[in-house]
Amino acid sequence: MNERVNKFTAVIMLGFICIFSAAMLLGGKESFSVDENRELTEMPEVSASSLINGSFTEQLSRYAADHFPAREKLIAIDSRIQAELSEKIVNGVFVSGERLLDTGAADRPDTEKSAEAINSFNDSYNGAVYFVCVPTSAGVYSETLPPYMQKNTESRQISSLYSNLSADIRKIDAYNILKMLNDSYIFYRSDSKWTSYGAYCVYRTVIQKLGFSPTAYDKYTIDHVENDFRGDLYHRSGYAGVKADIMDIYRCKGDTNVISCTGRDERGNIYKRHLFDKAELDSSYKYNMYLGKPLPLVKVKTNVNNQRKLLVITDSFGSCFVQFLTQHYSEITVVMPSEIKGSVRNMVDPGKFDQTLFLFGIDSMSDSSIFEKLN
Amino acid sequence: MVYSSLLFIYGFLPFSLLFYYITPNRQREKMLLLLSMLFCGAMGLCYLGLMLAYTVVNYTACRMIGKNRGKPAAAVPFAAAMIFDLAAILVFRTKYFIGSYSIIGWPEGIFPIGISFVTLAMLGTLIDVYNGRISEEKSIFRFALYVMFFPKLIMGPVLRYRSFSKALGSRRDGLNEIGIGISIFVKGLSKKVIVADNLYMLYKAVRSVDPADMSAMTAWLGIAAFLLSLYFTMSGFSDMGVGLSHCFGMRLPQCFSYPLFRTKIRYFAARWHMQAMHWFRHYITKPLSSFSRSRIFRRCIYILSWGAFGFWYSFDMNGIVWGIILAAAIIVENRFSKHRLLAVTGVIYTFIITAFAAVFLACDSISDSLRYIFAMLGGNKMFADSLGFYLFRYYVVILLVAMYASTDLFRNMLIRSGKTRFRTVIAASAPLIVLTFAVLCTILLSYSGSSGMIIMKL
């Protein structure tokens, strides 16, 4: 009896293993995962050093995991099981009934170096520098997180960043604005970034500092362009148990209009862009609908006739913010240092602008390499 | 490449089984060596180089000792190889020699997994050959296989050469053994991927709080999670290794025999990491105890060898303290072992002592450990807080499952049930159970692709 069972086990298990390894070996290899919104690992190249220190096998292991048969389905089940087995954290994403939140805030590196780089930009700049640091959804909804993560990590990180910035940089406290409004739909449920409404709430304060009076909420026509958006936290956790998000675009009633919107990369190639690129709603990351896929520089010209120009240095938080600035400036230049390999000054001369607005998520602030490109 | 990775389970394992079983019987030992070298090479050619160096140095030394047996000249190769082995473990397990890695061409940041086990095995073999307890191995292939045999590379067991060559010589491979082997492998995999990794998350959550702000409840949850996670990680890896060797027809002994939740610390000690413990008893406690018959002296030696065992775990003071606490507790316990109260409260007090000792394995420094113990004793004037209740709520199921799985209750129930229907049902559904757990583990591994050694580097 026992021997027969053992042999049966062997046959079943060997069959199971062989089917999966054959599928892994012979199965089609995708190069991009839509569900995770990332490039999958390519077959590692053999090199002497990677063989010697074993990193070849590590990469091969990652390659095997990335191209494992039925990977996306397995990950979706994995996230459900993980959330049941232990506390509700899946791949570093906290899963509450209502929303997904990033849990990595406490591990972020210090922002001191980034602050230094911005200060030295400010020292060599004649105009006025405005600075907004935006918390992630985990900072605004920190009370939803497990008790040991509710230490106001992000608010402390932001205030220490602000205290390291020069006194003549005008800082806007987005954290408290958003925190007060956190029962409105200001952050996506499955993304760490703000919704258009969240951006609008901060815009009201920012635009006053920049010297304009904000456009009232009822002056906008709001279109719900998408109701099935799943953001970066979903890509990371694969957890589909929270409601999909809605994406809005705000258009001001009246006669202000965007005349042109052009992007430029480091080689000088020119791309036609749109303030709202609805083609991106069919891509794997729908957030790119705002201003299109990130480019080093995007210039927006409007029919506002005041000859005022604004330089916006930003990250992905900014692409959703620009829609509110178009009613005030005749030209807005949006620069994303994270997309630039060399120096920002090769792309744009800040001296031609009277005002520069820095708008960054706290996550980008901890990556000082982004800000070293400023100088 | 660890056993608990998709690349190993669905790549290396079927590959090695295929090549092993298509090789004619007489060449299978060589095939095993080839596969083991491939495994080592996959961890990095530098790792393969290190293992080959171990093989060559110790093999040559053993042969030279054998040639000069009984002559004083035998001491020279003996001492030289001992120094080589000890130097190797010191270089790789302590942080003082990181600067010298470039001199020997070792890439920085790479830890040679399993080096602690290899070193113990080599030292033991050298001593045995030198003392004439075993004759030296003539075949360098078999000796190399002893060093590099991939199923015992990561987590032992520390086998003495004689046991290994006996297991190698009396191989019984075939479908039956593969069935047993894969079942044990999947058991070990589940221990690691399902239980140990989740409990480690609990421990990590507790450690994100400073011990000075920790409530007693949180601290106890944390250390219970650590102890269980440590046990499930180590016994999981050793089960995987034992299961793998079964697939190649070799029956290696289990390293752990349900050590937790015993009624006496003595029982815990006798069942925890048995082969490694045997090694320390055999090569340290016994020879040193023979110097004097004095009771106090022998107790000191006993404590010392446990300290050495702990030092082997962590290579710092904390490990030594762990060993000393356990040894001292056993000595005290032996004095009172006839006390009737002990029989009733045994499980609780054994758990408490092992938990206090485990703090020293968990923490980085003595002062950190003491602050943690202070929190466990309620020294922060907090016995329970919201964090404690939160963690309890989410982890209580896995903690209870882990506690049950770490005891031998289920096995005993099976044995006691004899030839009843219950046992038949369990036996008949075994293939399905194994398959289910294999699928579950594959799902849990699907995101990261592997689940490495996080809790202790041996």
Runs of chain B in which pLDDT lies below 50 for 5 or more consecutive residues are none
The topology string of helices and strands of chain A comes to HEEHHHEEEHEHHEHHEHEEEEEHHEEHH
Assess the beta-strand content of chain A as a share of residues: 15-25%
**What radius of gyration of chain A results from the CA coordinates?**
24 Å
* Low confidence ranges of chain A: none
Shape of chain A: elongated
Oligomeric state: heterodimer
Quantity of strands of chain A, as a count: 15
Number of helices of chain B: 18
Largest interface: A-B, 53 and 63 residues
Please give the share of residues in helix of chain A.
Answer: 25-40%
With strands numbered from the N-terminus, the spatial order across the biggest sheet of chain A is 7-6-15-13-14-12-10-11
Overall geometry of chain B: globular
- Proportion of helical residues of chain B: over 70%
Polypeptide structure, described:
The complex is a heterodimer of chains A (375) and B (458). Chain A has helices at residues 2-26, 48-52, 55-66, 71-85, 112-123, 137-140, 153-164, 174-180, 196-209, 232-237, 316-319, 322-325, 362-365, 368-372, and strands at residues 32-33, 38-39, 89-90, 93-95, 100-102, 128-134, 170-172, 220-229, 245-252, 258-264, 270-272, 297-302, 309-314, 331-335, 355-361. Chain A is α/β, with parallel strands linked by helices. Chain A folds into two domains: 2-81, no CATH class; 100-374, no CATH class. In chain A, the strands form four sheets. Chain A has an eight-stranded mixed sheet. In chain A, strands 3-4-5 form a three-stranded antiparallel sheet. The longest helix of chain A has 25 residues, at 2-26. The radius of gyration of chain A is 24 Å and the shape is elongated. The termini of chain A are far apart. The longest helix of chain B has 33 residues, at 175-207. Classes of the chains: A alpha/beta (375), B mainly alpha (458). Chains A and B meet through helix 1, helix 2, helix 3 and helix 4 of A and helix 1, helix 3, helix 8, helix 16 and helix 18 of B.
